[in-house]
Design brief:
Length: 473
């Protein structure tokens, strides 16, 4: 029996679910959103916001210490309690009143509880007290349930109560010794943060540091982590973990070494939140990532099922998930109204940029900002490329920005089309340089035209001119 009917039901009120619901309501449809924890999702309370708050104060301190005059004015160390308090504020003290008020103002109906699909266009919501409500959708059910930390099957690990990204983001105290398993984005950002907060950090990496980005960027981060006192061990696997009666965690490595710490953070990637959402009722496999077409409609679904954000594995980033949300919200509205669907390449109803133009900033020291393909990925994709590198320290704006500035930029050019397909820059405070590259890639701006986009002097952006000069005209 159906209790309530809406045009669209969104499962999960993370940043992506919220944006899907907002979009369909703006398009004239009704929407309900189902959330089992906090409205705002992982990003607001346990991921993007709190982790960036943990990193920001020490980055500002580093910047001041890199400048004569400012350096002399810094007379103390980082105030850890103040950093944690600012982090708490950025996580809204783990309360979602503000987000709930926003849902209200946007005309979206919130159903609190665990949502499960119970057949085509039907969702059952189970509240904490066990009461259930059955919701029906006229047009679409959108799964935006996100992802959770993946735990490897290392003997003793689960029993040792390891930290996941959630614990690292929300910790109330800083452990004296922290081991980090993994070398990706979470591992390097949290190693940077906790080292700055005073922990003795050991990073245990199976492969290389930040394997997803250009190798020079991972090398710069490794060097600076080591300079900050972090032990970075690459090419090691953790064999077993044990927490003893005193709370000390003992890790045994595959080379026989042992590491003793107070907490161990596992940061080896994500698993989709699809294990208990009723996928079996619509012929899909519980626990799997949801494969979608470019309009975010689930492949092998029932036609009314969509998936956006982390759960479809296209790009596990908030901004990219919200981009998908705009496309999927609009396409649901178009289909509901029988309007034309604009699903051609770069059309309104598709998320084409997911393919080859995903921007990401890693907030380590130095920051890494990258968009599009790495040189290796471009070659693997069969492109005929030319790689152009430039030393970021050799740009007037960088030299002014900080003494001893270290950094590097790379552009990857598709030689057949003479357009940029990849851009990576590593250096202090480079995050906001990235959008220019994203525009160049998405706009497929010809290199000959880029010469007319003149970077202001003396800014770090002048690296664009240096890269073009190195490429030649
Ligand atoms: C430590 C860390 C730092 C990060 N930093 C950044 C960053 O700086 N920038 C960036 O772009 N990305 C960052 N990310 C990635 C970013 O957090 C995710 O890409 C983003 O949160 C995905 O949004 P989402 O809405 O798809 O999922 P989520 O944010 O995970 O939201 C999903 C929501 O669905 C709810 N839910 C799940 N199952 C059910 C169910 N059955 N019923 C009801 N509700 C359900 C959950 O409770 C949750 O609220 C970071 C990730 C981590 C782990
Ligand atoms: N600033 C940001 O934009 C930001 C920050 C944090 C996280 N995120 C997103 O969150 C997602 C999750 O981040 P993450 O760091 O957990 O994953 P990741 O995919 O970035 O890195 C995982 C790392 O773990 C290693 N690994 C995998 N399996 C392993 C195993 N069994 N043992 C040891 N090492 C193993 C991999 O080689 C890789 O280095 C990413 O997709 C990332 O984009 C984004």
């Amino acid at each position: 029996m159906t209790d309530q009917t809406y045009d669209v039901i969104v499962l999960g009120a993370g940043p992506v679910g919220e944006n899907v619901a907002d979009r369909v309501v703006k398009g004239g449809l009704t929407a309900a959103i189902v959330e089992r924890e906090l409205v705002g999702g992982e990003c607001s309370y346990w991921a993007c916001m709190p982790t960036k708050a943990l990193l920001r104060s020490s980055a500002a301190l580093r910047a001041a210490r890199a400048l004569p005059g400012a350096r002399e004015a810094v007379t103390g160390d980082l105030d850890v309690a103040a950093v944690l308090a600012r982090r708490d504020a950025f996580a809204s003290n783990w309360k979602d009143d503000g987000q709930v008020a926003w849902l209200d103002s946007a005309g979206i109906t919130l159903h609190r509880g665990h949502g499960r699909i119970s057949g085509r266009l039907t969702v059952e919501v189970t509240r904490d007290d066990g009461a259930t409500t059955v919701l029906a959708a006229r047009h679409a059910v959108v799964v935006a349930t996100g992802s959770s930390a993946l735990l490897p099957d290392i003997p003793g690990l689960r029993e040792a109560a390891p930290w996941t990204s959630r614990d690292a983001a929300a910790a109330g105290t800083v452990p004296a010794r922290l081991a980090v398993i993994g070398g990706g984005v979470v591992a390097t950002e949290m190693a940077t943060a906790y080292a700055s907060l005073g922990a003795q950090v050991t990073v245990l990496v199976r492969d290389g540091v930040l394997p997803q980005v250009e190798a020079f960027a991972g090398e710069l981060v490794t060097t600076s982590l080591r300079e900050a006192g972090v032990t970075v061990r690459t090419g090691v696997e953790v064999r077993s973990v044990e927490r003893d009666g005193d709370g000390t965690v003992h890790l045994e490595l595959d080379d026989g070494d042992r590491v003793e710490v107070d907490e161990v953070l596992v940061a080896i990637g994500r698993t989709p939140n699809t294990g208990d959402i009723g996928l079996e009722t619509v012929g899909l496999k519980p626990g799997s990532w949801l494969t979608v077409d470019d309009t975010m409609r689930v492949v092998d679904g029932d036609g009314g099922l969509y998936a956006a954000g982390d759960v479809n594995r296209r790009a596990l980033l908030t901004h990219q998930g919200k981009y998908q949300a705009r496309a999927v919200g609009d396409v649901i509205v178009a289909r509901a109204h029988g309007a034309a669907v604009d699903d051609g390449r770069w059309g309104r109803h598709v998320a084409t940029a997911d393919e080859r133009a995903v921007p990401q900033v890693v907030f380590t020291d130095p920051e890494i900002a990258a968009v599009g393909l790495t040189a290796a990925a471009a070659e693997a994709a069969g492109l005929r490329i030319r790689v152009v590198d430039h030393d970021l320290a050799a740009v007037a704006g960088s030299a002014l920005h900080a003494d001893g500035y270290r950094g590097r930029a790379r552009m990857v050019v598709d030689e057949d089309r003479r357009v940029i397909v990849g851009f990576t820059v590593a250096g202090p405070d480079v995050a906001d340089l990235l959008h220019a590259a994203t525009i160049a890639i998405v706009g497929e701006v010809p290199l000959d035209r880029l010469w007319h986009a003149v970077p202001a002097y003396p800014t770090v952006s002048e690296v664009w001119l240096r890269l073009l000069e190195a490429y030649g005209r």
